[in-house]
Amino acid sequence: MTTQFIIPLVICCLAVWVSLGDPLGTPEELPRLLSGVIGIVCGVWFFVVAPWVLQLSLMVMLLISSNFFLGDGFKVR
After folding, report:
1. 40 closest CA partner among 67, 63, 8, 1
2. pLDDT 10s digit of each residue in the chain, 77 long?
């Protein structure tokens, strides 16, 4: 069960690393584009197969961090 959501998480992290740039070299445009697509697909796959407790904690972290980073600029009056 654990490998069902650890494998897509690792693949997603590696795809983000390749997409943002490899410090050892400069990849061409096609690998960056493919790694971005692979990262999104594996991120969705990770979120679908993760246990509900992990999904809930990720959503709470996302809401807290978005409120922290966006600040008062996007509040509804």
Report:
1. 8
2. 577 878 888 888 888 888 887 556 555 677 788 888 888 898 888 888 888 898 899 888 888 887 777 666 666 55
